[in-house]
Amino acid sequence: MDAKTGFFYLFSVVLLFAAFRVITARNPVHAVLYLILAFSQAAAVWLLLKAEFLAIALVLVYLGAVMVLFLFVVMMLDIHIDTVRKGFWKHFPLAALIGAVIALEMAAVLMGGFRGMEEPKAVAAMVDAAGHVVPY
User: Fold this and answer.
1) Rounded distance, CA 107 to CA 96, Å?
2) Sign of the C-alpha dihedral, residues 35, 38, 44, 50?
3) Are 31 and 22 in contact (CB under 8 A)?
4) Which of 43, 38, 9 is nearest to 23 (CA)?
5) Which residues have C-beta within 8 Å of that of residue 66, sequence separation ≥ 6?
6) pLDDT category, 135, cuts 50, 70, 90?
7) Whose CA, among 1, 16, 25, 120, lies 20 to 30 Å from 129?
8) Quick one: pLDDT band at residue 16, thresholds 50, 70, 90?
9) Rounded CA gap, 63 and 85, in Å?
10) pTM above 0.85?
11) d(C-alpha 43, C-alpha 37), whole Å
12) Biggest CA pair distance of the chain
């Protein structure tokens, strides 16, 4: 395994951990901080894929502006966690069912691939002055 593959797996594992902690953190400030970690790891993966513009846009737009705004709003609000968690077990069966359906659909796509899809064919044509398509 080369270094690039190792870094990809490292960034991916940290990204999955941070994403899991975003939804399981009890403190909203900690959830926002884990979301910042997840976005930074996603930017690192974009850098490994040689998509520097997307990585920089992710860092500047999301980490630089949106996450800082979220962090300040969450820190300034007086959120009562007990009232938010009150209806958790009431809605848990429906949420678990929807999550299982989504996971099964994703597994079906990943295991089966995109069968029946043809590759797009390049169309070589010109448009004349009148707007008619002229093949060449």
Assistant:
1) 16
2) negative
3) yes
4) 38
5) none
6) low
7) 120
8) very high
9) 28
10) no
11) 10
12) 69
Instruction: Dig out the tokens for 67 from the structure.
Output: 């996450």
DSSP 8-class letter at 25: -
Say how far apart CA 44 and CA 38 lie, in whole Å: 10
Q: Write the single-letter amino acid at 124.
A: A
> Which phi and psi (to 5°) does residue 50 adopt?
60, 35
51-67 in b/e form (b: 16+ CB < 10 A) is: eeeebeebbeebbeeeb
| R_g of the chain computed on alpha carbons | 22
Q: What is the pLDDT of residues 85-98, one digit of tens each?
A: 777 788 889 999 99
